[in-house]
Design brief:
Layout (H helix, E strand, L loop, with lengths): L1 H4 L8 H12 L27 E7 L11 H7 L3 E6 L5 E7 L13 H18 L3 E8 L2 E5 L5 H11 L24 E6 L6 H13 L1 E8 L9 E3 L10 E3 L1 H25 L2 E6 L4 H10 L5
Parallel strand pairs: 3-4, 3-6, 6-7, 7-10
Antiparallel strand pairs: 1-2, 4-5, 8-9
Helix pairs in contact: 2-4, 2-5, 4-5, 4-8
């Protein structure tokens, strides 16, 4: 397994992506959840489905989520009303992979970009093995590939492999952006991105996405990011001339800024109803996928 989960090169071949199919099929069984009459984005049941099919509109109670408020009925009646959703039989997933320049980096096991590609492959292959519908949107470098439903698996594997090419770093954006998505409703949407910031336009887009889908933002963190030895470094894409001087103070300041960004990012996602899941990039992609399985993110 080591040559798959800890590859000798961060640049993955198509064969590597394809070989992950066997591991995705053997991940095990999803955790059984208590069946319940649910709102979108709350609990999971033993049946495949997301609880995102509109069941009824009823008066709001103190335990309901405000984000599911039906504002039109509320305005018309003068009484708060909430949208209640019921289970769907088919589980559908959509993967959004978006890599910035910073994703092509790693200090120990592999690059963040590589681990994301492996994880996207495992999620997609898992759905394929269970005969479930899965789509994807891949954005890296100046490339964008959209699969409303993945049918050409050879092409999908090739594009995931391409996303790990280090040369893609040179043209990758530093900001997260969502290109137009197919109409998504009642799906588990998994955003695989190293970004921790988005603008107002994207915030509105994510809010709309979370209104009709279960949205998960999956982050990969390198724990050694702020543990570089003191000294002089010259970084690729450095905007300032000359080497950078790294010392204990500069590392502490950088870590504090990063933690503040992370806290603000978590608060934004929480307010939008997007669940944020963070993992160590050095963890095996198999272990990460099994955690997603246990938490009901994948089936």
């Amino acid at each position: 397994m080591d040559h798959l989960t800890s590859p000798s090169s961060p640049q993955l071949s198509v064969e590597h992506i394809q070989q992950l199919a066997a591991y995705a099929k053997a991940l095990g069984h999803a955790k059984a959840h208590t069946k319940a009459h649910i709102l979108a984005g709350s609990l999971l049941s033993k049946k495949k489905g997301h609880g995102l099919d509109l069941h009824e509109i009823r008066p709001y109670t103190t335990h309901d989520e405000v984000r599911h408020m039906d504002w039109r009925i509320t305005a018309r009646t003068g009484t708060p009303h909430i949208k209640v959703y019921s289970e769907e039989i088919e589980h559908r997933s959509f993967i959004i992979l978006q890599l910035s320049q910073d994703a092509y980096f790693g200090t120990q096991t592999t690059f963040i970009s590589t681990r994301y590609a492996q994880l996207a492959a495992l999620i997609a292959w898992r759905s394929h093995a269970r005969k479930e519908t899965v789509g994807a949107q891949l954005q890296f470098g100046q490339q964008q590939y959209s699969y409303p439903t993945i049918k050409d698996w050879q092409s999908f594997a090739m594009h995931l492999s391409q996303s790990t090419n280090i040369a893609e770093r040179d043209t990758s954006s530093t900001n997260f952006s969502l290109s137009p998505l197919p109409s998504l409703r009642g799906q588990s949407v998994m955003i695989l991105s190293d970004q921790i910031w988005f603008d107002k336009a994207l915030e509105i887009h994510l809010a709309q996405l979370a209104q009709h889908n279960r949205v998960y933002w999956i982050s990969l963190e390198d724990p050694n990011l702020f543990a570089l030895p003191n000294g002089q470094y010259t970084f690729a894409h450095q905007t300032e001339s000359g080497p950078s001087h790294i010392n204990e103070r500069s590392k502490q300041q950088a870590q504090q800024r990063y933690q503040q960004q992370q806290q603000a990012f978590n608060q934004q996602l929480h307010a939008l109803g997007v669940q944020h899941l963070s993992f160590d990039v050095n963890d095996s992609p198999i272990a990460i996928a099994r955690t997603l399985l246990a938490r009901g993110v994948i089936h």
